[in-house]
Amino acid sequence: MIARFKTLCCISALGLSVSAFAQEATYSIKGEVADAETHEILIGASLEVNDLKTATALDGGFLFKNVPAGTYTLHASYIGYGRKDTTITVDRNLNLSLLLANNSSVLSEITVTATGNRESDAYARRLEKVAPGVINTVSANAIQQSPDVTIANVLQRVSGVSLERDNSGKGSHAIIRGMDKRYNYTLVNGIKIPSPDNKNRYVPMDIFPSDLVERVEVHKTLTPDMEGDAVGGVVNMVMKNAPANGVYLKASVATGVSQNLMDDGYDRFPIGAIHKKSPYQQNGADYNAVPEDFTRDNYNYEHKSAPANSYATLAIGNRFFDKKLGVMLGLSHQSEYNGYSGFFIPAEPLNTEGSFLVKHANVRNYSTRQQRTAGSLKLDYAINPKNKISLYGLYASLADAQTRLTEDTVLTAPRNGFGNGQIWYMGRSRYQQQNLLNTTLQGEHQISDAFSVDWSGVYSKANNKMPDFGEWEHDGGINADGSPILDVIQNFSREWWRNTDRDYAGYLNLHYSNRIGNAPYTVSAGGMYRDKQRDNHFESYTLRPTGGNQVWDGIENFGWSVATPKGGANAGANNYSAYEKITAGYAMAKVSIQKLEVIAGVRVEQTQQGYFTQLAETIGGKFADYDYTDVLPSASFKYLLNDRSNLRLVYFSSINRPGFFEPVPFSVQGDDFKETGNPNIKHATANNFDARYELFLPKNAQLLVGAFYKNIKDPIEYGFAFTGQQNDVTYQPGNYGDASNYGLELVFEKYFGEFGIRGNYTYTNSSITTAKRQPYRDENTQAQVRVVDEKRPLQGQSAHLANAALLYKNTKTGTDVQFNWQFTGSRIALVSPYYNMDHWMKDMHTFDLSAEQKVAKNFHVFAKLQNLFNSKYEVYLKKQPGNINVMPFQDIASGATLVQRNNMGRMYQVGVRFDLNK
């Protein structure tokens, strides 16, 4: 009886436990949130159910855990979208798909439709999918979360793109698919802009802050309605547009510091002391300069502790007058200090086969201050549903102050080690200001259901000023017996550079759309005219120490005379005016036949180019005119394999014109070599082929696999040419033979809840065969020089490029973290006139880190760390000199010679951002 009672009690207790468990059963609710029209996933959308809150992750997904059984209202919301309330019954695990409607507005005269978030990754992916050619796009959201502060930094994350770096290791110009910067051009909102560069037509991309853009597009193929002078590709910066609904407001402030300056300090010269105008500019061509016309203050350096960097940005926009008028204003200012240390060891050949000597070792220390200021204004007005006009203005300025202190020691006999022998001490002050102004008036008109017209009128101007540029020098050292060598002052050069590049341009495009049966088509035709004027002014003065050999006792304590008092009169071909008039027309048809889209057409560009210099009438090359016409056909095929994948095949022909300065027979002493122009240079032409498979998966994932081939006739490269005076060489542009370039590209992107991975890899192989000089000894042991052919890659082309980014985003805590790796493979940095003597940049790995944390509604703090592991820019020769034993900084066992190293250092930045729309 007792046993039965115990059994009943146990059964009852078990039943109560089961009942209690059933009453407390919980389930999960997961799903994703997307735009109702575009199906673009919405990252960071807010969700709430039964007092539980969460937000969508990087893949647009959300998850509620341990939700008790019952009936609830699920609330979903996202800024700029209508709130969605959904009644759900939780009696099992649920998987939901929620679509939110954009707050589009129907107006009395015009309809503003939802286009999705134009700054999002999803919008960028969609543009890549529907584009008429092969492009890669970086969204504003991706840029904001990255460590990058300039457009140049942004571009190096794109597949097939690397940066050309200057002597300090800083990157400013894009190399696309191994094609030098000269083979690319730059657009702002689809309009080509001029260059502030004092010699060339390419635009320095570090002049643009990264926070003004809506997205950055890299076009790797051309259609007939695009200008034809791009063999590598086209960079298009799309600036922010007025929002469709509500106020757009985003602002940030930040500060930072350079690790190199924290370690070694900063060498400053007073910029205000610079004479902005030369004696020639101030007093006219007949004036003879005197010593008192030249200040010494800007060559007097003060060593200071590390100054702080500062960054500020503002973007604000809205729509007015029943949303007909859109206004978008963007402002950005960056003040950045940095320091670089390094060395440069020029190699010089001997007249013996296969051997050379290194004579000098330049140890250099740089201090720089860069100030970027930029502003953009976009106005658009909808006259009625069929007519719209817009006005866009962009101003960008980069002021760069650089101090360079150099010690140069001789490495040849009788010197018996590094640190004694002749020593040259040099100090250089350089202040350069580049600015660019672009104004564009555009109109879009729907004449009828089938016929439309758009046009653009453009005024652009770029300026470059480099006043009072020079380098003082005094030579001393230590004899082998330990006695000092007399420290003697050398001649002092002072130069003033200034140039302007002005564009007037007009564009007109006509479009007719209809269909033949079930095949829609669009026929387009149009034209462009550009009138460009380039003016370059250069004055050079040589200051000679007075009284014989003066001993150095500081920049203030010696006298000088002006050896070239006329200045500008001695500049010759360095003072010139150049013009370029381009007339272009095109015809293009786009037709869709079921899953196949074809775009084909032809573009014709007629170029008139020339220059006029201040050379004497009797000197050849005083002026020149060039006139040529190019017919540029192209065809693009896109086959829609299914809703998510495309297959593209593209052919286009293109050209590359010489820079305005390149045909001018100028002569100037560069940093390390004499540079001259080449009046016989020809423009290059190219045939280009592309194929790409594109897979666009849900939740912003993508896979792009492509291949390309380029055949280039008369490519323009810089190399050394002999002047005819013994072994004297000059660095100049030339057509060194035909070239080919082919490669493979891979792009991938995938998100897993709060984590994501993004990356790309590019293999490129180019080749060109050029004549080189090779010293040798004949059978009588007489020194001779012969000319032999050498096959090499194009200058600037890396065989391997790679990028990878690891992403973490927790929308519930407002945390974003990104870790970036960028790899640039070995490439030719400098072409030598001698066989097997080219300078090669060493493989370079850089790592960057960025993080952002939401701290309050609309407020975020962020941090950026560039060059985390202190990567160095290094250049080497693939052989060793005869005097390697006395050379510094060498790894003799490597079999190579390190000729340049720049320690770029780390950069730190922390700041706060206000975002009204988050």
Polypeptide structure, described:
The protein has 918 residues and is mainly beta. It has three domains: 25-103, Immunoglobulin-like; 111-239, Beta Complex (Ferric Hydroxamate Uptake Protein, Chain A, domain 1), CATH 2.170.130; 249-575 and 586-624 and 650-915, Maltoporin, Chain A, CATH 2.40.170. Helix content is 6%, strand content 59%. It contains six helices and 53 strands. The protein has a 22-stranded antiparallel β-barrel. A five-stranded mixed beta sheet has the order 10-15-16-13-14. A four-stranded antiparallel beta sheet has the order 3-2-5-6, with no helix packed on it. A hairpin with a 2-residue loop joins strand 13 (184-188) and strand 14. The longest helix is centred in the first third of the chain and has 22 residues, at 2-23. The termini are far apart.
